[in-house]
Amino acid sequence: MAARYETEILSVDGDRPEPLVDAVAAVAAGGGWVNIEPMVDDEQRSDVPGIFAWFSARGPQVPVGTFVAGSDRSPASVGIEHGTGRDAGDRLNEAGVGAPVAWLPRQDHPKRGLVWEVHSGDLDAEVVVDLLLRATALLCPLPHEGRWSAAVSRPA
Q: In the chain, which stretches have pLDDT less than 50?
């Protein structure tokens, strides 16, 4: 039988991220994942459409941050899919938006994005949310007003 998940959509204000911190903590404890992206004017998006996206060398124009809970078989992960090209991790570090030293970098790819492995003892929901909010804001080329949309998926 396939696992079932319930998804809740949150509107997150960067000045008051507590509901997202609570959601990440709940997912970390009970399983599931969280996806967030900056809210932008949809008319300004120019993502590569449909099948042509497969042939693009870059990820989405509006970055998507993801937290995936760990399990008995694998550690938690934090990732950012973006369309800003190579060395996004270096650009984040230069801007003072770095992952904690204990997080293990697993990927910095221009199309598939950045991924860090986070072991349970190094998991702090506030740190996860801070990194995801700051990194997606920095890597977003479109104007946004400090608000994010979050999809929180948990086992039903």
A: 48, 52-56
- Retrieve residue 154's tokens: 């948990």
Q: What is the pTM of this model?
A: 0.86
Question: Which of 100, 94, 101, 59 lies closest to 80 in space, CA to CA?
Answer: 59
The answer as to whether 92 is a domain residue is yes
Q: Which domain holds residue 149?
A: 31-40+51-155
Q: In what order do the strands lie in the sheet with 33-38?
A: 5-13, 147-155, 33-38, 64-68, 76-81, 113-118, 104-109
Phi and psi torsions of 75, nearest 5°: -75, 165
Residue 98 lies in a domain: yes
pLDDT of residue 144: 86
Per-residue pLDDT tens digits for 85-96: 778 888 899 999
Closest by alpha carbon to 38, among 134, 155, 153? 134
